[in-house]
Specification:
By secondary structure, the protein is an alpha/beta fold. It contains 25 helices and 20 strands. It binds adenosine-5'-diphosphate and magnesium ion. Magnesium ion binds next to helix 11.
Length: about 675
């Protein structure tokens, strides 16, 4: 098929250019057609602004000017970045480039006339432009006016190289391009046919057609995703290697009394569902969604006990060493006294201990194990694994989950625990292949975290309060503002805040710095030092939001709170209020917008993560679930489950209809396997 041929078949692409294309993940002609311009990255000549017309609201805009200065810079933390300043007589704009983007300073020179598309915001001296793409005006002049795409580039590739290649590929598509959506669906939804959609996503004939093309591709992707999930669900349930367990008996009872508390009503309900699932011959595939601190660990302990009671092994996988160790302590406290042999398996074990654990797992003498990624390494062999639990699963991809399941000769029962407060409608569609247990409410006796909201001028007083907490022997978190969705930029912001605070308000106080750019060992070292109360203040990005338990931490300051979603701040806030002392969460904002301030006030009165998530959805739309996206919950191509919620629900319905009709289901599966260019839908089906 033409779409499987390498791009070197196209005119103007030799081996050298092909390598550059490979850097942007384009190998075949099909890949090229799937290399859509980023949203908003089109040159629409009827919409070129002057610099003084640019609005600094963070939206993507197009302007034209000449380059007055190029600079390569280093931040305080020694990270490389570059700036290009562009002027047009009405003002100046500073384009900020990070990481791979800095190559542009070699391609462009002072005096060059350029078109710039980028996210425009307020900078220190000039308007600041991020996520920018540039092109030479002289290159654009040759093109007929209209709406032109701009693509992600690499090396010496130019927009014109890619555009010319895409034009040739579209010419091939015009001769032969199979449709992949079922015909009745295409008719009912009035979608553009695949070819027309493809032409308009690359070279839109109008803004309207561009939007229609996007709608089709978004639907297409979500539809195949949902079909894949439904297909999966049926496969899992159909697996005849499931293990039907007996009704719970003495061992489960003993563990239950060993917990040291009575289960809350919502824990009871969730446990009932898990218990029933494990007694069914079909493998369990259940997600437990419960707010931070709602007591999910107890359910994991009971499920492990049940597996052991029936003569099998169970394992619990955690995303970090620290979380794994915390769970291990719980196992030693709750499972060991009931007579269950437990172990911890992490990368940090000595070679000798590691060998012992591996032997114990292989011969069955270890009955319940907790660990990190170390659990899915090839060297790990289980004697009889019947239950695989993952905690905070959004840190684990589907593939890793599957690998854990592959470690059993059976089809193990799978339990996934998460505190990510996604609104219910969204959860059901996102986790389309899972059954969901929802845990509401908290165990009794919790002191609610007192939440306060202050504007910028109170910052000094807030940090004075922090020092007071430290003098009292407590610890604190400082969360730095969300700049944009990029680990690199957020890491830089955290580093800058660390420098500012340790030289200013927090001079002389032992502080730690945590961000996503650290290596796993570095992260663990920072966290351990904080857990041991050696560092008093942890300055951090949102990476801290998952499951860490340091009960001595009583204060959390969230800087730039207006930039966070309510649900995400709630996740963060869950890091404090874990001990017996009164805890506080301070939201700092420099915003004076009454609507923003009112939104932040909601945090003071509401401590229900799900309610806050619904509020977020209502107030800001789905697009603001930042954290989720960072956790790879949606490594989708063009769709965004959080922005395209309505389409997602529609696609879910359509998928149910399609998969219920054997003829159409077969068509869909074939389409996923054959007509798609880069195999991404096929991967969903075979995951
Ligand atoms: P999460 O759902 O965030 O994983 P945990 O399982 O860590 O929550 O539980 C948080 C705390 O609440 C733990 O200290 C745990 O011992 C306690 N806890 C859990 N269930 C109950 C209960 N039913 N009654 C009292 N305390 C409980
Ligand atoms: Mg937990």
């Amino acid at each position: 098929m033409w779409w499987q041929e390498p791009v070197t078949k196209l005119k103007g692409i030799g081996p050298k250019k092909a390598l550059e294309f490979e850097n942007i993940n384009v190998v075949t002609i099909g890949d090229l057609l799937n290399h859509f311009p980023r949203q908003g990255c089109y040159l629409d000549y009827s919409h070129v602004k002057t610099i003084d017309e640019l609005t600094t609201d963070g939206s993507m805009q197009l302007f034209r000017g000449s380059i007055v200065r190029l600079n390569n810079r280093r931040s305080m933390r020694n990270m490389k970045y570059a700036t290009i300043t562009v002027g047009d007589g009405t003002g100046f704009a500073e384009i900020v480039l990070f990481g791979a983007q800095t190559y542009m300073t070699r391609v462009y020179h002072t005096g060059d006339e350029v078109f710039v598309i980028g996210k425009v915001g307020l900078g220190r001296t000039a308007k600041s432009v991020t996520a920018a793409s540039l092109s030479h005006v002289k290159d654009e002049k040759a093109e007929a006016p209209g709406i032109l795409p701009t693509y992600a580039l690499s090396g010496s590739l130019t927009q014109n190289n890619v555009r010319s290649a895409v034009r040739q590929a579209l010419a091939l598509a015009r001769k032969e391009l199979p449709e992949c959506l079922p015909a009745p669906l295409l008719r009912a939804k009035h979608f553009l046919p695949r070819l027309e959609a493809l032409e308009n996503i690359h070279f839109p004939k109008s803004q309207e057609l561009l939007e229609k093309a996007r709608q089709r591709f978004i639907f297409e992707e979500l539809f195949f995703l949902q079909c894949g999930l439904l297909h999966h669900r049926v496969e899992i349930k159909r697996d005849s290697r499931g293990i039907k367990m007996a009704r719970s008996g003495k061992l489960v009872d003993r563990v239950r009394s060993q917990l040291g508390f009575a289960l809350t009503d919502s824990q009871k309900k969730a446990w009932q569902e898990i218990d029933d699932d494990m007694q069914s011959p079909e493998p369990m595939n259940r997600l437990v969604q419960g707010d931070v601190g709602s007591g999910k660990t107890a359910l994991a302990m009971l499920a492990l006990a049940k597996a052991v009671e029936n003569g099998y092994q169970g394992c619990l996988m955690a995303p970090t060493e620290i979380l794994a160790e915390q769970h291990y302590q719980e196992m030693q406290k709750v499972l060991e006294p009931a007579g269950i042999r437990t172990a911890l398996l992490t990368g940090g074990l000595t070679a000798k201990r590691r060998r012992e654990v591996l032997e114990g797992l292989a011969d069955g003498s270890i009955q319940a194990v907790v660990g990190t990624y170390a659990l899915i390494q090839d060297a790990v062999v289980f004697h009889s694994l019947a239950l695989a639990i993952t905690d905070e699963q959004h840190r684990f991809g589907v593939a890793q989950r599957a690998k854990l399941q592959d470690k059993s000769q059976y089809a193990p029962h799978v339990l996934i625990m998460t505190a990510t407060p996604i609104p219910r409608t969204l959860a059901l569609t996102v986790y389309g292949d899972l059954d969901v247990s929802l845990m509401k409410g908290m165990p009794p006796g919790r002191k609610p975290v007192q939440t306060l909201c202050y504007t910028e001028e109170k910052r000094a007083a807030v940090y004075k309060g922090l020092i007071h907490q430290v003098q009292e022997g407590h610890q604190a978190y400082v969360v730095c503002p969300l700049i944009e969705e990029s680990e690199g930029v957020d890491a830089r912001a955290a580093s800058d805040l660390y420098d500012e605070l340790t030289h200013g308000y927090l001079k002389g106080i032992p502080c730690g710095l945590l961000h996503g750019r650290l290596k796993p060992e570095e992260k663990d070292a920072v966290m351990e030092s904080f857990a041991r109360n050696e560092t008093k203040v942890l300055i951090t990005t949102t990476v801290v939001e998952v499951g860490v338990n340091v009960p001595n931490a009583t204060l959390m300051i969230i800087e730039g709170a207006d930039r966070f979603g309510l649900a995400q701040m709630h996740q963060l806030r869950g890091r404090v209020g874990r001990g017996s002392a009164q805890s506080y969460c301070v939201l700092l904002t420099s915003s004076t917008n009454p609507v923003t301030l009112e939104r932040l006030q909601i945090m003071r009165n509401c401590s229900d993560g799900f309610l806050l998530a619904e509020k977020d959805l209502e107030l800001r739309g789905a697009g603001q679930f930042f954290g989720l996206r960072q956790h790879g919950l949606s490594d989708l191509y063009i769709a965004d489950i959080l922005r395209d919620t309505d389409t997602l629900v529609e696609a879910r319905k359509a998928a149910q209809w399609a998969m219920n009709d054997p003829q159409i289901a077969r068509e869909v599966e074939q389409a996923a396997a054959t007509t798609q260019f880069d195999g991404r839908f096929e991967r969903i089906f075979n995951a």
